Automatic annotation (TrEMBL):
This is Phosphoribosylaminoimidazole-succinocarboxamide synthase. GO terms for cellular component: cytosol. The keyword Ligase applies. Its EC number is 6.3.2.6. The keyword Zinc-finger does not apply. GO terms for molecular function: ATP binding; phosphoribosylaminoimidazolesuccinocarboxamide synthase activity. It is an enzyme of class 6 (ligase).
Amino acid sequence: MSLVIFWTSLFDMPLLVLARKGGLHYDAHNSAPISGPRENEGVVMARRKKIYEGKAKILYEGPEHGTLVQYFKDDATAFNAEKKAVIEGKGVLNNRLSEFFMTGLTQIGIPTHFIKRLNMREQLIRQVEIVPLEIIVRNLAAGSMAKRLGLEEGTALPRPIVEFSYKDDALGDPLVPEEYIIAFGWATQQDMDDIVSLALRVNDWMSGVMFGVGIKLVDFKIEVGRVWDNEFPRLILADEISPDSCRLWDIESGQKLDKDVFRRDLGNLTDAYTEVAKRLGVLPSNVTHRPSKPTLIN
Ligand code: 5GP
């Protein structure tokens, strides 16, 4: 064990943590663990171990064995990172919104990796072995499904449909049938039964919550990870749930309040996410994000 001092990004207060050396095995697909000091706008912020950097988040070693710190960046990417931008305040909003969704899901008995929010951009999470699948639940046809089947966006589906993509950026996260998943050993049949049941429970709760604030949950993507409790593996909800990974349409106007605003150049992404956060009570209703950064209710 070694004593490490690092700086929180919110309060600029030194936080003393006991960090275990080694022992981390975050199984982020297609990535190698990276170590070294964290740099932010040219300033070396801290000496803590970076485990993985993705398109929208960074994972750092957590204060205790089996934990990680998940940092939400402002980076937005679309079309397998062909389109990129930095959108000020997006990371702050997604951190808070993901906390809101994960906390609500925990309260109805769905196990998640979320432990607690640490500050504006970071949350403490349980370390998991990520199952290399994007699990997508659809209520209305949109996006890739609408394109693939020639359906008009917004067509109601006969029932919620769960589909799977293999998490591989180089391949563009291809849609895969359950048969492939089991044959290639990415998950077992029992895992798949558990994943579908978990995804549908998430859909039920999320649809209801969003409907309550005048928003249709069109579709969303989740990821799950495996944890080991006393030698027994268990699947829990991982990654994030935010407007980056959902399609959210205003019930009255049909206005898009999700990452399609960025993908399709429909306006200001932070305005859209701020609107979602305000309606859910995560932001005070009189806040506009301009000219300063989002103001959060603690
Ligand atoms: P589609 O397959 O129509 O592009 O996406 C279906 C849903 O899953 C959308 O809500 C979309 O935002 C989400 N989704 C699909 N792939 C990804 C991804 O790689 N990252 C994120 N954050 N969301 C995704």
